[in-house]
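Hello,

Following up on my earlier ticket. Below are the two sequence lines again, exactly as submitted.
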Amino acid sequence: MSDIKVNAVNKTTIPEQEVVLSLYKSADKIYARSVSGVFDRWRWVMVWATQLFFYGVPWLEWGGRQAMLFDLEAKRFYIFGLVFHPQDLIYLSFLLIVSALSLFLFTAVAGRLWCGFTCPQTVYTEIFMWIENKIEGDRIARMRLDDSKWNLNKVTRKSLKQVAWITFGLWTGVTFVGYFTPIRELVPNMIEWQLGGWETFWICFYGFATYGNAGYMREQVCKYMCPYARFQSAMFDDDTMIVTYDEARGEPRGARSKKVAENANGLGSCIDCSICVQVCPTGIDIRNGLQYECIGCGACIDACDDVMDKMGYAKGLIKYSTQNGMTNRWSRQQMLRRLMRPRVLIYTAILVTLTVGMVVSLYFKPDFRLDVLRDRGVLARFTDEGNIENVYTLKLENDTEIVRDFDLKISGLPALVMHLADGNTQDFKSLQPFEKRNVVLELQLPDGAVRTGSHKILFEMTDQQSKETVKEKSVFIVPSN
Amino acid sequence: MNDFVSGFWPIWISTITLGGIAFCVGLLIFASRVKVTLDSDNTNGHEWDGIKEMNNPLPMWWVGLFIITVIFGLAYLYLFPGLGTYDGKFGWSEVKQYEAEVAKNNEKIAPLYAKYAALSVEEVAKIPEARDIGKRIFLNNCAACHGSDAKGSRGFPNLTDSDWLYGGAPDTIKVTINNGRNGIMPPMAAAIGSEEDVKNVANYVLSLSGSIHDSGRANAGKEKFAVCAACHGAEGKGNQLIGAPNLSDNIWLHGQGEAAIIKRVHEGKNNVMPAWKEKFSQEQIHLLTAYVWGLSNK
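Thanks for your patience. The regenerated structure is below:
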């Protein structure tokens, strides 16, 4: 492996050394220092927004049922006033495409916004770190605690943290399962130990995933597991907002007393306090430039601004900026002007089109279905009265939670007479909620009324109350004698 | 149960499967210690188009996951079919799973059917829910030939009228559905005589149901009809014991008019209704019988 000599373009003259090493190693634990500032506040806003939604929505009621319920057994998804069936899968595709495009757009404009502020991995890590911080203390205290011998203090703090984490994880699991099993039944059942096997499994599974990912895996998920993190760089360009360190202003870095002026002794503005490294949840040094581990959370910006303030220097040594902005020393306005670039405009256009399309399509989604199946065994037949008869099976489906009556109108041929076949126990009236019904129809036409061949006809099913209409095409066949 | 046609392929597949797992394990062990030349900036001297290869070891938990997948894979291959002809410890197969699911479903709906099985066909036919079940079975299985409205078509009997080839009593219908029927009429032209005789007989047959016919020919054919009477009866009323159709009711299963009758006399007919007792449970056939019987007995 190592014997292959590569003719490197500009071979470095740094002394090489042969080492034997393992391709695997345990990751170092990261003790992120807590931070406060603009971006941190925004993150907490997002934490509250997303988690209020996640934990709150299952408790909402809508017309006597849970407002958002994914009933897998009945194959029906209830989302407030809407009911989705398996055949509405296209809307799920829509939703996923819109979500993906939003992600592309945000990424093109402002880098890993999603990662830093709304990704569940970040949000739950933030919550778990807050718990950890409250119980074990901040960075230094946590390091000391981990290094110390097991004593009463350590046992108490560690077990307290575990209890808090596990409780939170389990509650997340319960909420998750509550989207599939009505949560108002689930929680009492859980308290009485009456849960089904699968429910128990999924609560534990989801709870453990939350606990493991937010408590222990943390940045490892972003670095090694997350597929989005792997390909998001493809959406970056030189005008994408990223967390940048202003090297021209900061270097050469060096420690100094508060009394000296900012750039005395030929030093740059960076005082090399390394707080930006300490607060980083992925453990990188942003001063080395943009790295793939960076999730754009802005913790280092908050930390550095704070330090600059204390030193009495201008903020923005580390800030959100763009590659072009950095190289050309652009102002904010000049950077914002670059928002109007093709990449962003195209993403926006597609996103807007799809979103509007989806909303419109949802608005006009008929809530009952009609399928017309011609009998294929019998194309046409002559009745004893000398009429031509075609047979159709109408499949009706009421997709709502109310009882409904329908009227049927058939157009396309003059003098068509409709008979309900003998085998029908019911016609188009009083369809129960979610009922599917087969109605067999015979259409008759006097012989010789129209030419031989196939004629297009139209079935129109109208809801008596809402006057909504669903149309379905079919054909009437006139045989040659 | 497997579909291998020769002894070679199962061995081939097993070798590739287990060899693949062994290769992964070997790679894991081989890569756990490796000699590299390391520069001080943590690169190893490999460089392509200015992109340098760095030394970034995989995290240990990743290796752990890798090992877990290997164990999972071996456990799976032990428990489930995956190695050639080996059926797995559980003896699982798609067919068995399907049968288990069908059995489970049948168990679920058994009480529903049992409720109706206790009643006679005539009683079941009066219950709308029961008729709906029968109708669904009919639409999915019988409608292909008899039509969705059960009125049949050429060659397929109409089930909604009161004309029955084998009889319309509930038990007879049940026997028909269970065992199927095979209606055979041999070609009779030779027995009747000349082409003229056949034409005359055809006109006599038409006269039985009062259809349009040549009365002179009909009179001439009356005598020759004796050949047909063996099955269709002296008056052409048919015989339900052997499924010989009634020729006097103007219902024509295989076509109307002189030409159609002559064709039938020449060619005969072998008409088959399949047997369904293998496909349905007796409870389902009970409901289906009630639905069919109910079509002509309001």
